[in-house]
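Technical appendix A lists one of the benchmark inputs used to test multi-chain prediction within the project. The record comprises two sequence entries:
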Amino acid sequence: MRPVSPLGRLRDGLMLVGFALYATPFLWQLLTAFKPEAELMVLPPLLPTRLTWEHFRAVLDQSVMLRALVNSLGVGTITTALALALGLFGAYGLTRYPIPGKGLLLLVVVGGTAFPQIATVSPLYLLLRALGLRDTWLALILANTSFALPLVIWLLTGFLQEVPAQLEEAAAVDGASRPRAFRWIVLPLLAPGLASAALLTFLFSWNEFLFAYTFTATEASRTVPVALALFPGVFEVPWGDIAAASMLASVPPVVLVIVLQRYLVRGLLGGALRE
Amino acid sequence: MRDRRSWHGLLLLAPALLTLGALTLYPTVWVLWLSLQRRVPIFDVHRFEGIGNYAFLATDPRFWKAAQVTVLFTIASVALEAVGGVLTALALRGQRWGSRVALSLLLLAWALPSVVTAKLFEWLYNPAVGLINFVLGGLPLNWLGDPRLALPGLILADVWRTMPFVTLLCYARLLAIPVEIYEAAQLDGAGAVATLTRVTLPLLRRILLIAVLFRTLDAIRSFDLMFVLTGGGPAGTTETLTVYAYRSLFQAVQLGLGSAVGVVVFALVMLTAWAYLRALRSEGIVA
């Protein structure tokens, strides 16, 4: 590492300010969420005279947003668990067993990641309604799982290929059964890859709008993006409350990007950099 | 022995295949079937129509306008993201400290729900107290209400949201370029500009083309941002094919017609992917 000159430091500092400016749309909304009601509809000044929790309190006092947060969290968690379980077995089968038509299957999986939701939303709506699943968590879990699955399989086959099959063969020679070798050798080595796939799936489910907007009808299953899109404003648009609700909707993505960045980056690159 | 192993493999794959079959493949076949029907539940209309819906779309000005908006939106967004993505990736690589923080600030935009992005930009574009008009010196521009400004406004929001993905891919590629290549370029007397245009950019080409493919497919099928930010308005200037499909399906409740538009989006995505991969293959970029 070369020593950094003062000029280099200045340049780095200025660039960092530039990157912070890139996040302005978000930071501006963050500031808005803490602005007192009376100061919302005046600009300038840019900065408020004081900060307030009133908008967050107003949003959390209504049952809509609170319920939506619970729904999103529940649907996201179950979707992630389900997609990961299905994807893990599928990817293991694809990488470790001589399955006929493997190349074609993988092609279908890759194609599946580019699938437009708008093309299947109408039959899925009819299907879920016929099954009596309208406005339930299960409807969203099923729809989101099927949508996230191709990406999960794609990511996990990539990560599994990095785990040498010889390790399992060596374990088999030592008398370990396949499930045992899978549990004690493959799974620990696959853990970071699983974490990446889980994070991307949860994020997809948390952010998903089209299915959630179409398949839900009431607070019982509305997720955060839907509640935010339908945010009630009786006489005028409650900008402060919308800003506070947006910030609540942004908590998981923010945590992901700041705390778990390593896994996010690995997942994104793992999905994109393969042939 | 080999047969039994195949069966075990298929058994492991079966739950995933069944899920995809029931919830993706089956609906895909069904939507094709739906698109061949005239279904207006509120009038209790339900009959087979053959290619009637497609024939209608072929002469439907609203459909062609939506197709035009989709193509315009896709090309403009992806082009801006590619250029911006390369530039920010180069800036990131130059960063000796704080690159992790810088990457967080960028990726934040990518990770937010698109409904949140729509709300952020709705507030930024506010004609009276929006930050954008304020920065422009108090111009009273009605971004989302003016038919000339709505599409550029929408594109800007989309570029903000998705450019970081291109940045990340290019940045990862830049980090993987061995220092020796640059040292060799320096020895050969290449200046900063020559190094950029003769060494760095050619090495970025492959990953950039792949990023552009991903982004193009994403842009064609995107829906949330325009639906929430502009709702397709004003005067249909931001109505993409996806928004048109949704409105036909669930607001006009014409399931057949809406499904036909959905099928068109599907075909557009697949054709684009196919054509693009063919072009990449002929250049030897993908196998």
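The two ends of chain B are 32 Å apart (CA to CA). Chain B has one domain: 61-250+257-282. Comparable benchmark entries are summarised in Table A2.
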